[in-house]
Each structure stands twice: as structure tokens, then as C-alpha cells.
Amino acid sequence: MIDKSRAPSAIGNNPERNREHNRRVVLDLVRQHGMLGRMEIARQTHLTAQAVANIVDDLVGEGLLMATGRRRTGRGQPPIQFAVNPEGAATVGVEIATDQMVVTVLDLTGVLRYKRIIPLSGTTPERTLPVFSLEVGRARKSVEAPLLGVGVVMPGPFGIEGMSFVGPTTLPGWNGIDVEAELEAACGANVTLENDAAAAAVAERLFGAGHAIAHFCMLYFGSGIGLGMIQDGAPYRGAFGNAGEIGHVPLVPSGRLCPCGQRGCLERYASLHALHERSRPERQKPSANI
Ligand SMILES: [Zn+2]
Fold this sequence. Notes:
Elements: H1 19-33, E1 36-37, H2 38-45, H3 49-61, E2 65-70, E3 80-84, E4 90-96, E5 100-107, E6 112-119, H4 125-140, E7 147-154, H5 179-187, E8 191-195, H6 196-207, E9 216-221, E10 225-231, E11 234-235, H7 272-278
Parallel strand pairs: 4-7, 7-8
Antiparallel strand pairs: 1-3, 2-3, 4-5, 5-6, 9-10, 10-11
Helix pairs in contact: 1-3, 2-3, 4-5
The structure holds zinc ion.
Zinc ion (ZN) binds next to loops.
């Protein structure tokens, strides 16, 4: 019986069996196994041998896969093995948090090749975008491989009137602008923007504890608190990407006042920001406590 949660086609939950999708499936399958031959790729993806041969030829031609020699199997001509070429491409990953920016470069095999943490004294777009531009440029120079794109995570919630980017656990001034377009203009590369908790859940799904689990939730402690959800192997975001924004769920009736205007929000009790507040009791107003 096939465990669908582990089938390569389940990743991304994309039913469209087009060429681009098949390329990704093949590349990801080889990445997961380290090395694979064409026949084994065909068997596991349910693609025809000819389709696999074409895709593998393309990927080798583009430098994304590389032939690593033949594996002895005992009988007949041993099959040629293919592996992901770490030098084939790279991605830049950036976290913009409330007090710092983390910039990383990963090669095509997912190995960390560069990491830099930059403290931020202000996180408005005016303060952040020049730093982002400079640091992405610096990161790109750390590897010679072509850049696939830049992935950026920020704390949400996004696009909720009166609640987005309000308070100390969010980034001020980003509401009402096309964040992805601003980031792309600043770094000159394709940018994929994601909520920090959702991105963390996808990472666990692809590389971590959620690898063999098709449905799960994970709590993410940034400055605030978020929930990353994976459903049928793919991230569950909701209409505006805020499905996991549990920070402003009212938890305590008449509880601590929250910058969002409500009282008793979860984030006022269970977040790094709340912990920091607790560790500085002399700076808290008694009325803000319960
Ligand atoms: Zn709130």
C-alpha cells in the first residue's frame, strides 16, 4: 500500500501533472534519496521511462542534477546514478523580525552556505528596505551558483484592517503596501513572501519532524505567537494568509490590554514579548496585569 503522505507528488499538493511540476517532483525525489537511477525515479514517480529520461537530461543540462557514476546491482549493466548538484543553484532566505534580520544562503541540496544576523534598530519599510537590499547583495556574492530566488518571512497578520502590523510583536508601517513588490524592487530578484509560522511548518514538512506527516500544526514563537498548519501535505493559509494567526484570539476575559484593542489576547500571555515583559516587572503598569 502506498503511503500517500510520502508520495513525492503530495509535496505542494499540486495535481497538475505538467512539465514544471514533474521536474520539481524528480528533483525533490533525488534530493530526498541522495542518489537515484532513472528506472527507480520512474518507478517512484509513476512517470514513463521516456518522460524521466527527458526530464533528467534537461536537469543535467541545466546543472541542477549531476551523474555520479554507476551503482553495482549484481546483474547486467549497473544503472547510472544521479544526485542533486549543490552548485547548481542557490536560494537566499531572509527573516525580518521585530529586532533583527537573518540572512541565509542555501545551496540546492539545502545545505546552509552563509548566515548573517543583522540587528535592526527600526523595522519600518524606510529603515528595513535599504538594509535588505545591501544584505541580499552581500549574501549573493557568497556563492557562485545562480540564484533561484529570495524567500522572505515576516510576522503577520497581513491585511486585516485595524489589526495588521499593530503592536510590539509586529512590524510597523508595512500595512497597505505591496510588500512583495517592494522587496523585489529592493533586491532585484524574485521574492516569495511568507508568514513566519507558515514557513516554519513548510520547513518541518520538507526537512524536519513533519516529513512523514500529512496533517499537523506547529506553534511558532517569534516575538509573538503563530500557528503553522499543514493539511494534505500543503500549507493551509486561509484567504489572506492569516489562518494561523492565533495571537489575537481572546483567551482571558477582561485580561491584559492588547495593542490590537482587545483584552486578554493569547499573545499577551504566551509569546517571547510577554516573557520579556514578565522579566521586567518594574516597567509594567499594574493595571495592565490581571
Ligand atoms: Zn490582540
